[in-house]
Write a structure and sequence with these properties.
The chain has about 300 residues and is an alpha/beta fold. About 45% of the residues lie in helices and about 20% in strands.
């Protein structure tokens, strides 16, 4: 039995005539009659008494009509839900992402691409910003999501955070540096060294300076704001030691098979983390879905 025939039967009964039903459904009377005959043949009973004046349900037809009406209502609801779902799938959602400048080293681009493959109607626009500008962009609603290095377990009333991965500071030194064989080094042991720092407005610079001050140091900074390959080259030439965030530099050293410059963890360590950040109270469904995806991505 075709469900559409049930709908036609309900409209026919409610309209009171083949002429009115044909006009309402934009069908020919012949087609409606043929479909009614198929219903009656399948049910093996007469459903409607035809006359020149009006249509009249048989006793079996009245029972059939009640169930057909309910089925028709369910079918209409299903059509509406499916139409909404199709419209939702075709709708584009734009996620504006602000991230620190070396975001590719943390595979944030890969994370966004994987999310876009799972949800093809999401379009990402990623912009590089320093920490202060990043939070300002979130506050002014110029972006929906931010990625930045922050203190572990950082919380405030304005922003929601989802941990992407833990991070820590380390120092880059030549392979023949006097502390090169140590498992870790303290900043006090580096007090007389010249320092190469990450960009001044970056979280890595801010937390690196905070660690130095915590150890009572006023570091002698000779360069800042360089790219990874540049400060590795400066360390290689003996210009100074580089205070860096561990993960991107570790990846760079490994991928480029660099062995004459090594990285040593710093102790005591300031607990840091790469966080996904968004505004509290203004989280759209697609941002919530992305936050859940970040959680899933982290736990793999």
């Amino acid at each position: 039995m075709r469900l559409r025939y049930l709908q036609e039967f309900v409209v026919l009964v409610d309209s009171g005539s083949f002429t009115a039903a044909a006009k309402k459904m934009n069908m020919t009377q012949t087609a409606i009659t043929r479909h009614l005959q198929k219903l009656e043949a399948e049910m093996q009973t007469e459903l409607l008494k035809r006359s020149t004046r009006k249509l009249e349900l048989t006793s079996e037809g009245r029972i059939f009509y009640e169930y057909a009406r309910r089925s028709s209502q369910v079918l209409e609801q299903m059509d509406q839900i499916l139409e909404r779902q199709k419209a939702e799938k075709s709708k584009k959602y734009y996620l504006r992402v602000a991230s620190m400048r070396n975001y590719s080293a943390y595979r944030i681009g890969d994370l966004c691409m994987e999310f876009a493959r799972r949800f093809p109607n999401v379009v990402f626009n990623i912009m590089e910003q320093e920490s202060d500008a990043l939070l300002q962009s979130l506050s002014s609603q110029e972006c929906d999501i931010g990625f930045d290095i922050e203190l572990e377990n950082m919380q405030d009333a304005e922003y929601f955070r989802e941990l992407v991965m833990p991070e820590q500071m380390a120092v880059l030194v030549p392979k023949d540096f006097r502390f090169a064989d140590r498992e870790y080094v303290s900043l006090k042991q580096l007090a007389h060294e010249k320092f190469i720092m990450m960009p001044v407005n970056s979280s890595a610079y801010k937390y690196g300076m905070a660690m130095c001050r915590g150890e009572g140091l006023d570091p002698d900074i000779v360069f800042s704001g360089l790219r990874t390959n540049e400060y590795i080259e400066m360390v290689r030439r003996g210009v100074g030691v580089a205070l860096v965030t561990r993960f991107p530099v570790m990846e760079f050293l490994a991928s480029n098979n660099i062995t004459d410059v090594i990285m040593i963890p710093i102790r005591p360590q300031m607990g840091l983390a790469l966080n996904m950040i968004c505004r509290v109270g203004e989280v759209s469904p697609v941002v919530r879905r992305f936050a859940a995806f970040v959680r899933e991505y982290r736990e793999r």
